[in-house]
Specification:
By secondary structure, the chain is mainly alpha-helical. Helices cover 69% and strands 0% of the residues.
Length: 383
């Protein structure tokens, strides 16, 4: 006799669990990419696998009874993952964008809700005897849950959403800071990570709506179809995990980490001797011709602290590093375009000789600085 244990919606949860566990194991044994980021992503996936498993155990139409017969102790244990998965995603994002990333004492505060909820479950469920647990589960009705549990769930979803917002703020900071340390940013594609972060943020907002809908239905007797929103969320998670599997490994390595510096007042006067040193070095040695030049290796060449160099560029030259280096490259490209011998040289070759690694950056910067396209400028100069 065959037993149908899962329906179609349960299968979507099972697929999500399978994807998360399989991808997590792959990341743990993988040597490609940043090891720290891979481990954090694997932990995030394992924690997320626990969430649909918790849903199956507590609300699966056929699986719930199977779980009761197996052991009442497996109820609620996977629910603690709700309190940690959003934190792990935030730490994963930070590990990608900061090259000096490490866990700090302040990060421990993000795990406080996880520890408190774990203690709460131990006290309210796991301290009970087996017979009491079976009797409770046998006559369980979601609507009969104490009102305070609904507020706990609401706080949980707000906390997860807040972590998602923090992820977006970190990405915004990265996009703003990257131009202060790198002259070539075209290879840095944030699209996949933005989709991932925004996707999970949307799911968490949906979770808030579901919780509020349930509270409204139970406490105010206003019927809202929160179950439909929950079903849509289940399928969204399945597709997001699939997206993550296909794109994260291929694009995580393009991240050029920035320093995670604490903001301090910039009151120290600029050393004009250092300014003169920078200007002379840029004109004589032309380090900007190196396509891979960044703030760190330029400071090494100048034998100057990276922080001092960054402050001089930002405060004295009133530019970020991206603008500072590419201004020199524009002047070099103008010089090359004025030479008769370069009349028939392709723009790609001119761009390459001037140190540009991106045609889009070259054309955009040139037009912004000169007011003409490179082709128009060469034609005007040579005619």
């Amino acid at each position: 006799m065959s037993l149908i244990l899962f329906n179609t919606l349960d299968l979507s949860l099972l697929i999500t669990i399978y994807q998360c566990i399989l991808f997590a194991l792959f990341l743990i044994i993988l040597k490609k990419g940043k090891r720290q980021s891979n481990v954090l992503l694997a932990l995030f996936l394992l924690s997320y696998a626990a969430i649909p498993l918790d849903t199956l155990i507590n609300f699966g139409e056929a699986f719930r009874q199977f779980a009761i017969d197996f052991s009442p102790n497996i109820f609620y244990i996977f629910g603690i993952a709700y309190w940690v998965e959003a934190v792990l995603l935030l730490l994963f994002v930070r590990s990608l964008i900061y090259k000096n990333f490490s866990l700090k004492r302040s990060d421990i505060a993000l795990f406080i809700p996880f520890f408190l909820y774990t203690l709460y479950e131990i006290n309210t469920w796991y301290m009970l005897d087996a017979q009491t647990k079976w009797l409770y589960l046998d006559g369980y009705q979601l609507a009969n849950e104490p009102a305070y549990t609904r507020f706990i769930n609401l706080f949980r979803e707000i906390f997860r959403t807040a972590c998602g917002v923090m992820c977006l703020l970190e990405l915004h900071r990265y996009q703003k800071q990257i131009k202060n340390e790198f002259a070539d940013i075209e290879a840095i594609d944030l699209t996949w990570l933005k989709i991932l972060v925004i996707g999970f943020l949307v799911i968490r907002v949906q979770a808030i709506i579901i919780t509020l809908g349930f509270m409204t239905s139970i406490d105010l007797h206003i019927n809202i179809n929160y179950e439909l929103i929950g079903l849509v969320s289940n399928f969204m998670v399945m597709f997001l995990i699939s997206f993550l599997m296909f794109y994260s490994l291929g694009f995580s390595n393009v991240f050029k980490g920035i320093e995670n510096k604490e903001k301090t007042p910039e009151k120290d006067p600029i050393d004009l001797t250092q300014v003169a040193l920078i200007e002379a070095y840029m004109l004589q040695s032309k380090p900007y011709l190196n396509h891979l030049l960044n703030l760190e290796n330029l400071s090494t060449q100048l034998q100057m602290p990276t922080r001092n160099l960054s402050q001089i560029i930002n405060r004295h030259f009133k530019q970020n590093f991206f603008e500072f280096i590419n201004r020199y490259r524009i002047e070099e490209s103008k010089r090359l375009l004025q030479l008769e011998e370069n009349r028939k040289v392709t723009m790609l070759d001119i761009m390459d000789k001037a140190g540009f690694n991106s045609k889009a950056t070259f054309n955009t910067f040139f037009k912004k600085s000169v007011g003409l396209t490179p082709t128009q400028y060469r034609k005007e100069q040579l005619n």
